[in-house]
Task: inverse folding
């Protein structure tokens, strides 16, 4: 089969991707014609071009991909004619190519309203990389001329706001001009749009609503916009983003049916009025509409591939116009019947002007189904809401809980087991819930590892891992199999049970525990868990049972690419004297280390060879440093802002308290790493609420927040106690940390630990503050013992010849690893790439 | 980099041409690994004390080409002795060298024998 695709934009590319993945190799010859000089790129994120992304970063696939797939890609070649009789296309160079199937993916062109003066210099459209390059050149030119240059964007829709971001990034004073009474009139209601406007204005962009532009003024270059209400906006550059016009001219030329409002008419299989010609993307008109979003275009590409392969797949009757994006830094999402125009509904609205959040859900009048909604300022619930909406899942009795989270309340989204089989769980590899359950039921996969191997789910970004895990456990439970939270095949116990066992029986070695309560020889999962338990019970150092430690704990440093290690001395609270800074610099120079400031207010020294580690530490310890435990699942840092000693806003001395807290808990090992922060006032410069514990000064004492983290799933810490003095704060911290250490699963940080805790934060407050279990004194005593038994692991290591002897790469040679190679990076070293 | 991997080919005990004397048993850590240099090769040697078994394999992890296997944690999967690479936790059988939790290339494994308190690796 000879297939010709006209257009190498996002949708045309998607067609190629789907086709080559599904059609039997050798059964076709695929040719693609693109009028732009470069292969398909990500038009949705065009403005990233201004924030430093290169052209190649935006490519959907490298130029070589097409050849690898056996696709003939003709770039810079325009199809000007289709001969439906001969079934051939003719290029602007007069070349003819015949087809058995023709795919028109010609996209759209920017709609330029008929305003006097649009041909003046300094007026641009926003569609292609060329457009952007021109905008860039012109913008820089007028910036160089100085005098506060003004840039305007005509159109306050999705694309217009993207364009506004681009203009702002160029350094121009930015204006958005919209004809409608609100921004994003197709996606947002008045309240949502108002909030978006406020947030955008906070960034310095000026928004002009209900403005009809009548004239573009200026001699040969633009100088101002004249509005029909007589007002005038001086501007030096204008970007028009007032909608799209389908590129249907080839369809018109060969007499395909064209929709009244433009676009080549297609049926639900993407066929046009000529059975050999298909149209997809923004060039196509389906059910009387042209869809200017990428998702419907992708669906069309998939349907066209299916039609050509004779598969039964048709376009959804109602095209999903859901979108979720970040516009100029503001999260905006809109899905389903966002305005409640399609029938009776009950809106549920949540608005928090202070935090800048607006959420609206449209619920069916019986309160059972979600019809659509709008999210501005916080779209973190979008993925779950869209699952509920798309799959028609029954809403909980109080649907408002879906958008208003009461701290401590259980998630209103319910169990992943309630999702229908078709729900896509892993979007990277598009693996459905049904496929995962099938792997468990029919293919005997009973662990996360087995399911990942079998289905590829969670093998991409890994964000769906918890959901996949819950599905496996839920499915196994449904099959009547006992699902116990066991740590691995060697121990039929949870971490908490093992912790209690070791404590009760007074075990002191891994071998005793596995001989008494486990089976086999252990593994990379249970050994570090046991090491952590021993450390949390007796403050034993990682060198005591060296062979059950992960490599970082075994060598008391962080392994990095190429097998060298990085060294992080403790710098409590981030406070350091010039003399100590000099020592770090001298050590780094002497051992040739790459130095970088860490996120936790300390200094990381990279590229240390294993045999140099004791020498490096000897010098650091002599200067008064201690191990920073950056290598351990242990307390890392307590970050601080400068606090009341220097800062004119400071309420309390955050640095001194951060140092006190860090000194107290240094070396404390836990199920996962622990980070803390202390801020001297509510401006929160130490970002303490992004930590496992965060302490924030108020006029009346400290507020203690717990269970936050940064990373892949950022969580703000929640309030545990307020207006407390330092002593009380430490007492609560002792209890909280010890309770976490005893009860959390392996490698579970405090935020997910709290999330899974029955009763949530209210229960945690009951345990820690109200001592409802009566264990407060015990927890404090356990912590006091750990604090008293602390010793610096590196001081121990350099003073103990047996430990020190372990830092050798070869057992039969004193030489180091000759495989390590470094190259220069801005005057420092980095591992050689291979 | 490919030629780095090409240095390592598995050796079966009956085919051994040279038994290399790597060092006294006492130089090797119990229930953990250590790295031995033999000509231009780096070999990881592991001692499982409770079953008193010794295993050897290439020190090079085929996943990201780092010389680190000897620093990995050892144990077993359903009775099969294994090592976990410290970099990304790929686990490899110490009997066959195969990657147990993914589709990485297998490690080359080498026979080990103990004589008069010394560890010998077969090449």
Result:
């Amino acid at each position: 089969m000879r297939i010709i695709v006209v257009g190498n934009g996002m949708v045309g590319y998607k067609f190629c991707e789907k086709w080559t993945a599904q059609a039997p190799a050798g059964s076709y010859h695929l040719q693609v014609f693109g009028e732009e000089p470069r292969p398909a790129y990500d038009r949705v994120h065009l403005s990233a071009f201004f924030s430093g992304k290169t052209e190649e970063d935006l490519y959907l696939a490298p130029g070589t991909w097409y050849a690898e797939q056996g696709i003939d890609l003709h770039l810079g070649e325009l199809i000007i004619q289709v001969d439906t009789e001969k079934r051939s296309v003719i290029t602007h160079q007069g070349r003819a190519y015949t087809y058995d199937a023709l795919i028109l993916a010609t996209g759209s062109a920017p709609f330029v309203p008929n305003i006097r003066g649009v041909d003046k210099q300094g007026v641009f459209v926003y569609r292609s990389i060329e457009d952007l390059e021109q905008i860039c050149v012109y913008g820089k030119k007028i910036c160089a001329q100085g005098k506060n240059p003004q840039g305007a964007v005509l159109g306050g829709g999705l694309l217009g706001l993207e364009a506004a971001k681009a203009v702002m990034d160029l350094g121009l004073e930015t204006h958005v001009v919209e004809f409608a009474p609100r921004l994003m009139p197709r996606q947002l209601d008045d309240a949502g749009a108002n909030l978006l406007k406020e947030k955008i204005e906070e960034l310095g962009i000026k928004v002009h609503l209900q403005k009809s532009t009548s004239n573009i003024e200026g001699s040969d270059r633009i100088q101002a916009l004249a509005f029909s209400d007589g007002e005038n906006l001086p501007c030096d550059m204008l970007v028009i983003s007032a909608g799209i016009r389908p590129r249907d001219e080839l369809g018109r030329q060969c007499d395909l049916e064209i929709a009244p409002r433009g676009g080549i008419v297609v049926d639900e299989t993407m066929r046009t009025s000529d059975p050999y010609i298909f149209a997809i993307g923004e060039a196509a008109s389906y059910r009387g509409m042209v869809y200017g979003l990428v998702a419907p275009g992708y669906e069309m590409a998939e349907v066209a591939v299916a039609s050509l392969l004779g598969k039964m797949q048709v376009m959804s009757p109602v095209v999903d116009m859901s979108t979720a994006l970040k516009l100029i830094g503001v999260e905006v999402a809109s899905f389903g019947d966002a305005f409640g125009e399609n029938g009776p509904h009950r809106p549920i609205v949540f608005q928090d002007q202070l935090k800048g959040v607006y959420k609206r859900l449209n619920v069916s009048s019986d309160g059972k189904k979600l019809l659509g909604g709008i999210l501005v300022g916080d779209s973190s619930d979008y993925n779950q809401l869209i699952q509920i909406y798309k799959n028609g899942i029954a809403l909980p009795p109080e649907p408002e809980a879906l958008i208003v989270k009461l701290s401590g309340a259980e998630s209103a989204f319910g169990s992943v087991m309630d999702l229908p089989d078709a729900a896509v769980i892993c979007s990277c590899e598009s693996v459905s819930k049904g496929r995962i359950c099938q792997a468990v039921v029919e293919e005997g996969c009973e662990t996360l590892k087995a399911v990942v191997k079998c289905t590829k789910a969670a093998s991409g970004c890994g964000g769906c891992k918890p959901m996949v895990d819950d599905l496996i456990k839920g499915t196994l439970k449904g099959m009547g199999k006992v699902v116990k939270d066991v740590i691995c095949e060697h121990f039929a116990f949870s971490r908490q049970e093992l912790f209690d066992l070791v404590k009760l029986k007074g075990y002191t070695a891994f071998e005793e525990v596995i001989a008494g309560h486990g089976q086999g020889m252990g593994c990379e999962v249970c050994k570090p868990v046991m090491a952590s338990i021993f450390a949390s019970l007796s403050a034993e150092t990682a060198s005591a049972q060296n062979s059950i430690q992960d490599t970082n704990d075994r060598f008391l440093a962080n392994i990095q690419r190429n097998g060298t290690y990085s060294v992080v001395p403790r710098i409590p609270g981030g406070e350091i004297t010039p003399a100590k800074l000099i020592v770090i610099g001298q050590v780094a120079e002497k051992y040739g280390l790459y130095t970088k400031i860490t996120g936790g207010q300390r200094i990381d020294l990279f590229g240390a060879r294993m045999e140099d580690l004791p020498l490096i530490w000897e010098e650091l310890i002599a200067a008064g440093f201690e191990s920073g435990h950056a290598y351990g699942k242990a307390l890392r840092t307590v970050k601080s802002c400068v606090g009341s000693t220097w800062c004119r806003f400071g309420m309390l001395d955050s640095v001194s308290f951060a140092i006190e807290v860090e000194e107290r808990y240094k070396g404390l090992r836990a199920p996962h790493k622990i980070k803390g922060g202390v801020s001297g006032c509510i401006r929160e410069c130490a970002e303490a609420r992004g930590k496992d514990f965060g302490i924030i000064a108020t006029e009346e004492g400290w507020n203690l927040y717990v269970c936050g983290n940064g990373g892949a799933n950022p969580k703000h810490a929640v309030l545990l106690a307020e207006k407390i003095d330092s002593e009380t704060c430490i007492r609560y911290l002792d209890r909280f940390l010890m309770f976490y250490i005893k009860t959390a699963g392996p490698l579970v940080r405090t935020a997910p630990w709290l999330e899974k805790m029955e009763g949530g934060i209210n229960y945690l407050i009951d345990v820690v503050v109200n001592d409802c279990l009566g264990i407060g004194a015990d927890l404090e005593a356990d912590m006091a013992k750990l604090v008293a038994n602390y010793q610096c692991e590196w001081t121990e290591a350099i003073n103990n010849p047996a430990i020190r002897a372990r830092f050798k790469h070869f057992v039969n040679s004193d030489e180091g690893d000759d495989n390590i190679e470094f190259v220069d990076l801005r005057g420092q070293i980095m591992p050689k790439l291979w | 980099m490919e030629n780095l991997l090409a240095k390592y080919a598995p050796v079966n005990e009956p085919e051994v041409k040279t038994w290399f004397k790597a060092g006294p048993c006492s130089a090797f850590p119990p229930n953990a690994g250590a790295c031995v240099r033999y000509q231009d090769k780096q070999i990881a040697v592991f001692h499982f004390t409770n079953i008193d078994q010794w295993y050897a394999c290439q020190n090079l992890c085929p996943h990201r080409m780092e010389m680190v296997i000897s620093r990995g944690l050892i144990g077993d999967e359903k009775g099969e002795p294994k090592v976990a690479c410290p970099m990304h936790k790929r686990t490899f059988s110490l009997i066959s060298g195969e990657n147990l939790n993914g589709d990485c290339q297998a490690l080359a494994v080498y026979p080990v024998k103990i004589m008069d308190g010394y560890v010998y690796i077969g090449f």
User: Anything to note?
Assistant: The helical segments of chain B are 2-6.
